Amino acid sequence: MTLATAGEVTGDVAERLARLTPIVAALRAEDPSAERERILQHDAFAELRRTGVLSLRVPKRYGGPGGSTRDVLSAVIHIASGSSNLAQALRPHFGFAERLLSNRATESERVEWFPKINAGLVFGNAITDAKGRAPGSSDTSVLPDADGVLRLNGHKFYSTGTLYADVIAVSASDSRGNDVQVIVPTDRAGVELFDDWDGFGQRTTASGATRFTDVEIAPIEVTTVSDGNHLGHSTTFLQLYLAAVAAGIAVAVRNDAVEYVQTRARPAAHSLADRAAEDPFVLHAVGEIGAAAAAAEALVLSAADSLDALVDNGSQGDQAALADAAVVVAQAQLVAERLTLDAAQRLFDTGGASATSRKLNLDRHWRNTRTVASHNPLDYKAHVVGNYLVNGATPPANGYF
User: Fold this and answer.
1) Architecture of domain 13-122
2) What's residue 7's pLDDT?
3) How far apart are CA 55 and CA 63, in angstroms?
4) How confident is the model at residue 352 (pLDDT cuts 50, 70, 90)?
């Protein structure tokens, strides 16, 4: 495996987060053209790796800075305000680190993978099969060959962040029909990566198809997963991560709305003001966008505190506590994503037709949010919340809560 590690990264959580500021500023300047021309931002990704932010969640006992869920999602919101694509590409990486803190992981897995994450190892994933009744169906298998060597075979049509990653967390079935996760280096023989994601949003998340053909797998590379019958806090974290990306987009919308009104917007011919920056209706639109961005971020970070409390209390196996956390996150996701969708379309109320310029590419915010929000139907989030509040029904343990 060829690993472009970050090298020796020092600094506490605050120092690592502070290193993001110039990178996010550069991302914000480059994002309109990179998204428009569909350019993967490998250099920016390498800069992020060097900040040490990608190992924030590694506990101190494994050599890391011991950051919280709030710290991670604060970083995600900040990165997404510059490029939601790059922030989305990191979801499987932070998700794998969070899974290691759950009761679904073993201590041997923590000892194996946390030091590697701390050294700079970056995870992508390959979860969604090209076939099956539902996206979570797995036609990918890891089975012993005639010599007893484990071999991975399958085709995933969407693989988040794999074109940036060093290793891929692959969902598969073993010889007993159990759901497992296989960790495979991206450069191993039999692994093929494709940059073919064709969605109208989140176009540069490095998330194309992946094909595995007789890929040799070591036993240590097969990790434990849920039995599918119980909630787990790491899947709840992954849902909150989506809301964090949306919140970051809302911040980007706010920033672009302010800049556009200050530097480009012209008032309508029948405006009540001589300048767009003094037009009450334009200022009203910017104010609503600003409120939506602030609310989305506050919702995500408040829900992150709930997950931190659950982990800090050692309640990862408490199904009642997990159900409550899943509902808190579902509520945050439901509202934050809808707030961002509204803010992204409201942006065009700050200017005329010139705001639709392809050069500005302001429509990417709505397209990206719509794509993020399409991961999981928001109406089902509302149903689960209502069913929990009225009937005490536990959210389904299917990875979407």
Assistant:
1) Orthogonal Bundle (1.10)
2) 58
3) 10
4) confident
